[in-house]
Design goal:
Elements (H helix, E strand, L loop, with lengths): L6 H37 L9 H11 L1 H22 L1
Helix pairs in contact: 1-2, 1-3
């Protein structure tokens, strides 16, 4: 009798783990958003005419954090499911 390879069960387990990763990741985004808003307020990003070019670049970098993190969550969850499909 050896070990049976239950590919469909592994796929459902992978989807569940990916869903948990997605939910935890989006929960963490809710903690990041107020910090991004606070950083933008401290750098005075609302008035671009009054700040230097370096500060404008820092404002752009701070603005990209939340979308980048969401893309990262999708990539990790999708990569986990894809890994289970390939192997």
């Amino acid at each position: 009798m050896g070990i049976m390879n239950n590919k469909q069960g592994n796929m459902y387990a992978a989807i569940m783990v990916a869903l948990i990763i997605f939910m935890v990741g989006l929960t963490v985004v809710n903690f990041i958003k107020p910090e991004v808003t606070s950083a933008r307020t401290l750098l005075n990003c609302a008035t671009p005419a009054a700040i230097t070019d370096g500060t404008k670049l820092m404002c752009l970098n701070i603005d990209i954090v939340v979308p980048y993190f969401i893309i990262l969550i999708f990539a990790i969850a999708g990569g986990y499911i894809t890994e289970k499909l390939v192997i």
